[in-house]
Amino acid sequence: AQSVAQPEDQVNVAEGNPLTVKCTYSVSGNPYLFWYVQYPNRGLQFLLKYITGDNLVKGSYGFEAEFNKSQTSFHLKKPSALVSDSALYFCAVTGDYKLSFGAGTTVTVRA
Amino acid sequence: SAVISQKPSRDICQRGTSLTIQCQVDSQVTMMFWYRQQPGQSLTLIATANQGSEATYESGFVIDKFPISRPNLTFSTLTVSNMSPEDSSIYLCSVEHSSGRGAYEQYFGPGTRLTVT
């Protein structure tokens, strides 16, 4: 079985401040980890993924995520948040081809 | 990445009726997926659709309620049958994209927002 936990329903930050969205996972074998973003009334957009190799992966829109095997975490980060980053963020994991999604974290960046 | 379109983008339907959602991809793909996103919730996989074979349904979803067609490598349909208000959701299709390194991210269509009255 595989699962993802996003412990925070909401994250609020001021524009220009660092943004972190937390994710922990459980999967048999090697994990493939993903972050997606969903803007209002739109589908999901792929941000980044971890397969193997460097624990810090860089993705779209200035986002990055750090894979930590010992803590089974894959937190999403952005050094300086923008108002336009306000959206719903989903972490996902797979050990085969089926994605399991977390419950999502709503990010609000205030001007 | 693949460009995915869905029709309709939204619909309001009466209970007891059926709605067929179309998903079109701009390139040939092996695996297509259908998800449901209920209001305020995460995505749940309904089924995996491979061309030339029967769709594989996840626990809690059955073919009689959600029949799927996959006639070719660029197209799929999902029908929501005998609808009830509990079927009000966003339905999304996705396709698998190979990066060539053995892990496949999925790209999603814009979704179909269904409201059942």
Short description:
With 111 residues, chain A is mostly beta strands. Chain A has a single domain, classed as Sandwich (Immunoglobulin-like).
Q: Looking at the structure, what is the overall shape of chain A?
A: globular
Radius of gyration of chain B: 14 Å
Q: Determine the structural class of chain B based on helices, strands and strand pairing.
A: mainly beta
Number of domains of chain B: 1
Proportion in β-strands of chain B: over 45%
Helical coverage of chain B, percent range: under 10%
Major β-sheet profile of chain B: 7 strands, mixed
**How would a textbook summarize the main sheet of chain A?**
6 strands, mixed
Give the strand tally of chain A. 12
Mean pLDDT of chain B: 91
Q: What do you see in this structure?
A:
The complex is a heterodimer of chains A (111) and B (117). In chain A, 0% of the residues lie in helices and 52% in strands. Chain A has 111 residues and is an all-beta fold. In chain A, the strands form 3 sheets. In chain A, strands 2, 5, 6, 10, 11 and 12 form a 6-stranded mixed sheet that branches. In chain A, strands 3-9-8-7 form a 4-stranded antiparallel sheet, with no helix packed on it. A two-stranded antiparallel ribbon of chain A has the order 1-4. By secondary structure, chain B is mainly β. Chain B has strands at residues 4-7, 10-13, 19-25, 31-37, 43-50, 56-57, 68-72, 75-80, 89-98, 104-108, 112-116. In chain B, the strands form 2 sheets. In chain B, strands 2, 4, 5, 6, 9, 10 and 11 form a 7-stranded mixed sheet that branches. In chain B, strands 1-3-8-7 form a 4-stranded antiparallel sheet, with no helix packed on it. At the A-B interface, strand 5 and strand 6 of A face strand 5, strand 9 and strand 10 of B.
